Amino acid sequence: MSLTSAYQHKLAEKLTILNDRGQGVLIRMYNIKKTCSDPKSKPPFLLEKSMEPSLKYINKKFPNIDVRNSTQHLGPVHREKAEIIRFLTNYYQSFVDVMEFRDHVYELLNTIDACQCHFDINLNFDFTRSYLDLIVTYTSVILLLSRIEDRRILIGMYNCAHEMLHGHGDPSFARLGQMVLEYDHPLKKLTEEFGPHTKAVSGALLSLHFLFVRRNQGAEQWRSAQLLSLISNPPAMINPANSDTMACEYLSVEVMERWIIIGFLLCHGCLNSNSQCQKLWKLCLQGSLYITLIREDVLQVHKVTEDLFSSLKGYGKRVADIKESKEHVIANSGQFHCQRRQFLRMAVKELETVLADEPGLLGPKALFAFMALSFIRDEVTWLVRHTENVTKTKTPEDYADSSIAELLFLLEGIRSLVRRHIKVIQQYHLQYLARFDALVLSDIIQNLSVCPEEESIIMSSFVSILSSLNLKQGLRLDWFRLQAYTSVAKAPLHLHENPDLAKVMNLIVFHSRMLDSVEKLLVETSDLSTFCFHLRIFEKMFAMTLEESAMLRYAIAFPLICAHFVHCTHEMCPEEYPHLKNHGLHHCNSFLEELAKQTSNCVLEICAEQRNLSEQLLPKHCATTISKAKNKKTRKQRQTPRKGEPERDKPGAESHRKNRSIVTNMDKLHLNLTELALTMNHVYSFSVFEHTIFPSEYLSSHLEARLNRAIVWLAGYNATTQEIVRPSELLAGVKAYIGFIQSLAQFLGADASRVIRNALLQQTQPLDSCGEQTITTLYTNWYLESLLRQASSGTIILSPAMQAFVSLPREGEQNFSAEEFSDISEMRALAELLGPYGMKFLSENLMWHVTSQIVELKKLVVENMDILVQIRSNFSKPDLMASLLPQLTGAENVLKRMTIIGVILSFRAMAQEGLREVFSSHCPFLMGPIECLKEFVTPDTDIKVTLSIFELASAAGVGCDIDPALVAAIANLKADTSSPEEEYKVACLLLIFLAVSLPLLATDPSSFYSIEKDGYNNNIHCLTKAIIQVSAALFTLYNKNIETHLKEFLVVASVSLLQLGQETDKLKTRNRESISLLMRLVVEESSFLTLDMLESCFPYVLLRNAYREVSRAFHLN
With 50 as the cut, is the pLDDT of residue 1 above it? Predict the structure, then answer.
């Protein structure tokens, strides 16, 4: 064939286009095979029962299907012909694409044979690679076509439907049907077709021999050659890394294996005639049990080759070679690759360390980075495809690597370094091309003995491009064309006769790729999108990594690998994109979720340990130490403890170690946390299918959820036994947790402040973000159901002297000490934990219980309405009162309910005081203005303004004359049927009812005033707070004068108690003096009443006498 026709055939352009087209066709075949093998994605009519006879008929008669005379067999197809056409058009066109691709491939291969092209991977690298790639891609397409079980049905059914719809079959069907039949036994047909191409194929493969032998060296040879080491020869460290064929240095061994296995499988004739071919083939057979056709579809090398050669005459020795090679692979390849992975872990770690320390070396030594990536990728893909496919083996450890994460991490590390310092690489190679490559190339071109016009034009353009530094992809395409022109037999300029030109141009191509194709080269050398199709293995490797504590720091590599999945998409198969995207994002999310879960678990376990250490420092644990110290002073005591008495370790004992090799649980946790923190902090963000992923956000959300659960767990609430941890102890535990998490802020990468703030804020709400109960709900329920319920029943009393609720010593009544949960320090701790929001929730629940009692009190007032009206008018008439009072019903009930209200309001006041102190401590600059604003409120201030200011003050814990929460709660009770006047009347009569009922308290033995507790054992001293607070709220609501009505109460109560002095029944006057003291307590409680007002209706001398009598009785007892 003439040189002119070689130019016209455009071999380089056709190889480029067909290889890309072939990849698309191959992916479409893969997609059809995958779709049809899964019942969920299979075309629906292939699964219909009514369609089965038609499918069997089409499969049996294919491709000679008589549509017109087979209506009884094809009736269901006729009914659904439109639907079938719609569904199967893409499938059918894909098969037509295979046929057209086959035609173009054979046309090009025949042209190349006619041109007698010379292939040598070391000289015309691009030409040789593209040629071998095309053969392998075409073979893979045909093999995948033969693996689609429903191919006859899909093609035949489409053609039947087409003929039924249009009156004639599809024009391509005859040839397509014949092609499908021919490739029922694909390898047999392929070997027949490739017989004429044996010379070109074997020549191309033989050029790989030296390279393949060198790249298949073992770890020991690599180690002795100090492969990938930049520091083995310090003087040459900054010398540029060069090779005769740069691209061969990072060419994938997996790709070469695929070329050799499939090439000699198709052109097996040369194996018996050429010893060099035989050596290369046997060496390749000793490398792998499986080679990849596409994604997870593999070719079982030895089985397929043996089956083919067994059917051929004169191949007995080759079959023996295959069996021998298979035994060698099974016995040795596992360990061989294991040792290589071990070497790469050390060598690439050293390389990454040096390059990270001196990124300037990426200029001259960029080749080393791409070689390292290629070597790692080869080892990982070998392991993946063998782990997936080798199911039965005596040495399973050969196909499992618990340290694979480190290799993946190093691969990602090198990729990151190259991307980060891409400017360094570009700047170096830009100057290299202009100042060295251009000059060398110019000299070589001038020394060429023969240089035809076309080649001369191309080479002159090379020099001008390099000199002008206007580098584009065109230079590499022109070099590809020149390789094709100079590899033809009759070319005046032969590339194999001018190896210096090939070497320089291959070097220039690599240098040009360092300017504009670094990202493409990274994908070419380190793409691990194969994991997208080996997800089970991917997950298994991740699980193994989590089990190895030394590998935890490398676990972030797995989510980073998910970013590679985008590279396995192809424009000819867009329907795959959503599925691949879902796989990538799902696995990235699941890996990061698991890592965040492990990290947060580790953090919370250490927090729990820290809390245990903090718990040892609580005041309650020092009682034993104080007791021992006191006993030593009073009497001599043995230094050694008695038998049976365990010596309690003092805080800090856990830090004393005689030997540092002794590893505690805390040491293990800290080590694990260090590893996990390294992996979570490795990258700030990365992209997976246009989604930006932030690992720290996963950790933050997990930490927040775990911290929420931990705080609730620390509260130790038991609904059955009604047990709960004291607020002060919980606060100490929470502080231990928060203190440790804050100390990790700079190590974890998560926003520790935000995590803590969100968790604590959620605990101030009734439910957290997961809908679980918080400590606000737990403590609110506990104080209402346990402490205040028992206070209402009289087993717990409020002691104003101790400023706490106190448990009375009664057996079997309660299982806790009330003062341990209600003193000043506990209220402060409760306010610290619940915060203003939580305290507001507590107040709202307390007010609900108060209003439920007020509702019952109003009912009692309404029942006694008429009598109370008469009493209000005649309270100063003893004779009339004597007849009216016995007519009242439920007086004891009124006092009991009012006492309950008083107990609840007293607890709320204590909680509010705790909140005030905490708020003053945290926000002193806010507390001052709030208190100042409250002082400006006068009786003349508008009631809405007053309540707004009081609500603000109440939120800060400041006490108010009128409780805004109580006003709001009572306002919600307003009945639609009753008028405001009636409600006001009931409120007035309620005070009268209380005033005339006070003497009844004297009959109760528990109504004795205790000087020690500054209160009564039946909590009636809480009545005063209830009377004052409820009155203030009610009369504020009805816009009446509070002071006037409290004076009325004071007068009526005084008269009632003074009349008690005339009572002759000693039982009724048993605790008269103690009850009299309530009058002073009422005045002290209210800002609306004064002692002068009391003196006017209840002589102070009676109070003085009452105090004296109470004091005398207390001391006598």
Answer: no
